[in-house]
Protein: GHKL domain-containing protein
Amino acid sequence: MFKNAFEASCEVQEKERFIDITIINFNDQCLATVKNQCKNTVKQFSQQYSSTKVGHYGVGLINVRKVIEKYGGVLVTDQKNRIFTVNINIPN
Structure:
């Protein structure tokens, strides 16, 4: 996720670049949010995002979601106004 956020931000004009990472513990939950500016709309097929990189198929975020769900957590993605957000909630 962090590498994806970094790479997506590098494609945006410097004055628009940002990556915001927030991690907190709240009510026996670990809550993490990663937000970054992106150049284009991220392609989404059903509940999964497709990689925009040549030779890649978007399996990174799918694997992250599988691991989080294995431990009782939830991963939710959103995209609005060219800002891509990943929210993660994992029980402590």
Remarks:
- The chain has one domain: 2-91.
